Amino acid sequence: MSHETLLATLEAVHRATGAAGHGWMLDAHAVQLRSALAEPTRLALVEWADRETRAELSALRGRPVRQAVRLSAHGRDVLAYAGRRRPGSGTPEPGPGQRLVELKPSQMTALRTYVRLTGGLHRRPAEGLAEQVDAAVFHRAGNRWRLLLTRRQMESAAYGFWLHRVAASATEANDFGREYDITYRPAHGGRAPTAPLPAAAGR
Q: Is the CB of residue 145 less than 8 Å from the CB of residue 137?
């Protein structure tokens, strides 16, 4: 089962149970999805009502309830997590002084690591960068995370990518420098520590 199919199945259960006052998907709907729910059941993303619960639902509905299913706590968490990855209503509109920045998944992972280390760093992330990282949306078609950053936040992100360059991989910093013409370099001889990446250095 693909991730998209799995999420679509969980969403179908979520919609059905949300519309029902008792919070369960019953009988025909549950049976209709039974084969699709095999994988979510195996992963403990849904739970099926036991005999006692079905008896209570039968009394509530005034008819026998033979099948009932709902999302488990794990299933609800998966939907909540997946919801953060989906794009919002269109491309975010930059505010004053902001620029739309698109990052590859590996860059976003490096940036998240940087903002999580706020309390343990000498040079801390720029104000508001962590909030913008948290508010980023994932554009599935382009396989990019979209976030809105000021120039100062972009320079701070470049420092995070420099840390990643030294500790792990240069790819993320190089890609950011080529795309946005910003890279961090420790200051030498009076040069600004964050400056456009020379063309030769980006290759």
A: yes
